Structures are given as C-alpha cells and as structure tokens.
C-alpha cells in the first residue's frame, strides 16, 4: 500500500479529528438534554426528504454526514436518558458505558469463542458473576449477555425446554399472568408453543399473580392429561412495578416440578437496595432470571442478561460443534454455546467500565433514588385535587388518572407540550397515566414541575 491509502479507512489524523468530533457531538447532546423535549417525533415526508437518496457510489463528506446524523437522525427520537422521560421504561444510560461501546466497536471486539476472544470472554464471565452476586443469586449461577429482556426470556425458554422437556412437547403448558410483558408470550410462540398452551392467568387487585391461581390451573391441566412445565413470575411489571410473590411461586414451582422463570427485566436491579431486596425475596430461587442492563443498571442500549441456576443448562441447549469451528473448540467456555447468537460483541465492556467508574454503591444509590422519586410523585399527586392514584408507587412506577381527561389523551398532550413525557396504559380495564422514574438525574424539582404541568394540561 506504498504511497496510497488502504481501502475503506481514513488516514490516522483524519480519523482522530472525526473521532473527537463524535465525542463533542455526544457531550453537547448530553449537556443540552434538559433544554429539549424528551420525545421528538418527525414527519415521515420531511425525514425522507432529508435522508432518502440512492446509496452514493463515490466518497462523500463524512463531517457533513455526521452533522446530519447528529442533527436530524438522532434528534428525532425519544431520549430515554432525558431526566423528564418517564414513559414505559426509560433507559437512563451513562456516558462511561457509551465509551465502552465505542471502544468495543472500534476494536471490533468478539466474545464468541475462547480461542477467538479469551479477553472479552473472561470479562463477560466476570461481569456475569458480578451481576449474580449483586442480585443475590447463588454463586454457581451461569449466564450470558444478550440484546435485552426479550432475547433473555426467549433464551431462557429454549433452555428450560431443552433441559426439562428434552425437546418440543405439544402438551407442555406455560403459566404467566395478564401483567406478564408481551415479549414473553411472543418468545414462547416463536419457539413453537401454541397459544392454547400458554395460560395467561388473572392478577389480583394489586396486579400480582397469586400462586393459588397458578396451582388451580396446573391441577386442571394435569387432570386433562397435559404437562405443566414453566411458570413465569414478574419482578416488577412494566405497567405498575408490581412484584409477584416470588418465594411463594418458588415453593409452588418446586412442589409441581415447574421451571420458574422470573422476568426481572425491569425490576431485578432493585435487589441492590435494602427495600428492593425485601420486595424481591425469593428471586434467588428462580431457575432463570432475565434482567435488562439498559434499564435500571444504566447501560446504554442494547444489553440484557440471562442468569440460570443450573450450571451447564445453557450449554446443553445451545452448544454446536460444526467442523468449520473445530479449531476454536476447547476446554474453556465459549459464549456462543450459551445463546442463539454466534458472532457476538463484548456487551460486558460497557457494564464493566460503568461499575469500575462509579462503583456498585453509586448504582445502588441511583436505584434507591428512582424508587424515592416515584414516591415523591405519588405524594404530589395525592395533594393535588383532580388526581386519583390507580396504583401506588412501586419500584419507581406510579399510575394515576385525572377526573377531567382520559390518560391516553393527556399523555399525548404532554408529549406534544414537550416538558415531560409520561405514558399511558390500561389497568384491569381502566385507563391510567404512568410515570417510571428510574433516572437518578431527575431532580425533585422536575418531579414537582411535572405534576404541576400535567395538572395544567389536564384542566386546560
Ligand atoms: C418487565 C419487562 N419484561 C421484558 C421487557 C422487554 O425488554 P427489552 O425491551 O429489553 O427486550 C420489558 C421492556 O420494557 C419489561 O419492562
């Protein structure tokens, strides 16, 4: 390559200059976050006009492309890390984690096999052990990092099926609740469970699935000659933050020989706090646990973990040893053998850097703060005429309704107004507004001002 540039790269100085520009764009966008609305939705035709073109055949102006990306593409979206983004489940993220992603991508990191990625593999094993310890799971717990909660539960179900059923059984039955996140029944359908083998059981007045309800359904299914197989409990529902009685579900699962999967995608990190630990009592008895790191563990998108009680269960479900991989097969663990993904980056790096930078105490404090912010919102709502609490603050979610306006309409009004973004839902048939307050950078004043603004918007 004497005297010419290598293909598909840039001269080092040029690369540095553009890299620094990217860092500036990131820092500027974070600095200006509070001054912008939490959600900006564009017009399809306007965005198309700015972005649609035939793929350019010739080299172009990278700097201009970066400005277009930062100024148009990445400004027309929700900012889950905006301190007044309270919709669904925010992604508070953190900038150190983002640097971890940049580093991993910049070095094209791979955590697929031991032979090809022993460093990233070791880091992921360390981070998985950290997670198990932080969440109070047994030290023998094994895991794998995936893209998020949906993939974590899907991977769990394929594992449970391989271990407990040894393959597909059309008579196997799964139990979940009307508050189970919809990605879980979807995952079951993807791996081949017929809808009539998925029992979506009613929750009680507090939106919790009671073990008696499950026990009754299991009894009926056994009497009908079916094979009860998997029980799904939720540690923090998306709708209300409700936590199913996990210890009682663990007892039931044990007695009925069911695999207990706990969906802690949202709520499991609360176990880092004293109050959360009490609420999540029994979570350590799950056969598998899904937890999102891009929600309440403050990692940038996308990363979730699956943690499994039985050593070797993941490898049993996912190991493949074709001839073209034989040079990379050995005694040390290869993470390709723990999920459906072969080529995989180091998602561990962003969480590892985050924990190295801030420490687990700061993360626990951040989680405790989120719980407190929802309680503050509840107090403000109770003190303001016109509002009714639909479900009290639980694990940083509070739901409520105003006497003058439907929740969905008010949520839309608030998003358009641009100060704060709540979301709406339907709880046992009742329309409700919800705030999910897991961003520790949200100030008390912002919570108070959000309630004032929502009240104004409701009564306008
Ligand atoms: C309780 C719960 N489970 C599962 C999911 C799905 O997770 P992901 O969006 O990371 O796939 C979510 C997402 O909000 C959730 O709140």
Question: How does the SSE layout of this entry go?
Answer:
Layout lengths: L11 H20 L12 H8 L10 H10 L23 H12 L11 H17 L7 E5 L2 H17 L6 E6 L5 H8 L7 E4 L9 H13 L3 E8 L11 H11 L2 E5 L10 H6 L8 E5 L11 E5 L4 H6 L29 H35 L4 E8 L2 E6 L4 H11 L5 E5 L2 E7 L7 H16 L1
Helix pairs in contact: 1-3, 4-12, 5-12, 6-7, 8-9, 12-14
The structure holds pyridoxal-5'-phosphate (PLP).
Write up this protein.
This protein has 460 residues and is an alpha/beta fold. It folds into 2 domains: 14-40 and 77-93 and 355-460, Aspartate Aminotransferase, domain 1 (Alpha-Beta Complex); 110-344, Aspartate Aminotransferase, domain 2 (3-Layer(aba) Sandwich). The protein has 14 helices and 11 strands. It has helices at residues 12-31, 44-51, 62-71, 95-106, 118-134, 149-165, 183-190, 211-223, 246-256, 274-279, 313-318, 348-382, 407-417, 444-459; strands at 142-146, 172-177, 198-201, 227-234, 259-263, 288-292, 304-308, 387-394, 397-402, 423-427, 430-436. It has a 7-stranded mixed beta sheet with strand order 1-7-6-5-4-2-3, sandwiched between helices. It has a 4-stranded antiparallel beta sheet with strand order 8-9-11-10. Helix 10 (274-279) links the parallel strand 5 and strand 6 (288-292). Helix 4 runs antiparallel to helix 12, helix 8 packs parallel to helix 9 and helix 12 (348-382) crosses helix 14. The protein is globular, with a radius of gyration of 24 Å. The N and C termini lie far apart (68 Å). The mean pLDDT is 97. The structure holds pyridoxal-5'-phosphate (PLP).
């Amino acid at each position: 390559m004497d005297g010419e540039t290598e293909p598909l790269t840039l001269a080092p100085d040029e690369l540095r200059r553009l890299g620094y520009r990217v860092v500036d764009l990131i820092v500027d966008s974070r600095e200006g976050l509070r001054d912008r609305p939490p959600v900006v939705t564009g017009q399809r035709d306007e965005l198309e006009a700015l972005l649609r073109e035939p793929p350019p055949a010739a080299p172009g102006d990278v700097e201009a492309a970066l400005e277009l990306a930062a100024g148009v593409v990445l400004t027309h979206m929700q900012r889950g890390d905006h301190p007044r983004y309270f919709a669904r489940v925010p992604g508070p993220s953190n900038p150190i984690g983002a640097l971890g992603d940049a580093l991993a991508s910049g070095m094209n990191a791979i955590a697929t096999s031991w032979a090809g990625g022993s460093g990233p593999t070791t880091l992921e094993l360390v981070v998985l052990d950290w997670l198990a310890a932080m969440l109070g799971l047994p030290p023998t717990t094994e895991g794998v990092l995936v893209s998020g909660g949906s993939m974590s539960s899907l991977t769990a179900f394929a594992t449970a099926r391989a271990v407990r059923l040894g393959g597909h059984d059309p008579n196997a039955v799964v139990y979940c609740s009307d508050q189970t996140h919809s990605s879980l029944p979807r995952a079951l359908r993807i791996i081949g469970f017929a809808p009539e083998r998925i029992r979506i059981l009613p929750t009680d007045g507090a939106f919790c699935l009671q073990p008696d309800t499950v026990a009754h359904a299991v009894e009926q299914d056994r009497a009908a000659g079916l094979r009860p197989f998997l029980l799904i409990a939720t540690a923090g529902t998306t709708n209300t933050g409700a936590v199913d009685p996990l210890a009682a579900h663990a007892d039931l699962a044990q007695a009925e020989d069911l695999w207990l999967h706990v969906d802690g995608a949202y709520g499991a990190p609360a176990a880092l706090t004293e109050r959360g630990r009490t609420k999540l009592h029994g979570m350590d008895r799950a056969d598998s646990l899904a937890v999102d790191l891009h929600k309440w563990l403050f990692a940038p998108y996308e990363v979730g973990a699956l943690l499994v009680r039985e050593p070797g269960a993941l490898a049993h479900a996912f190991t493949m040893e074709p001839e073209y991989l034989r040079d990379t097969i050995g005694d040390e663990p290869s993470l390709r053998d723990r999920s459906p993904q072969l080529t995989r980056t180091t998602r561990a790096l962003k969480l590892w850097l985050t924990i190295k930078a801030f420490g687990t105490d700061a993360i626990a404090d951040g989680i405790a703060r989120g719980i407190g912010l929802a309680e503050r919102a509840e107090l403000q709502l109770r003190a303001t005429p016109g509002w009714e609490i639909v479900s009290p603050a639980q694990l940083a979610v509070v739901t409520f309704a105003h006497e003058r306006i439907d929740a969905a309409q008010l949520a839309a009004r608030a998003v358009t107004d641009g100060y704060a973004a709540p979301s709406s839902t339907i709880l046992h048939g009742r329309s409700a507004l919800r705030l999910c307050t897991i961003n520790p950078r949200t100030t008390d004043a912002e919570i108070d001002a959000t309630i004032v603004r929502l009240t104004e918007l409701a009564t306008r």
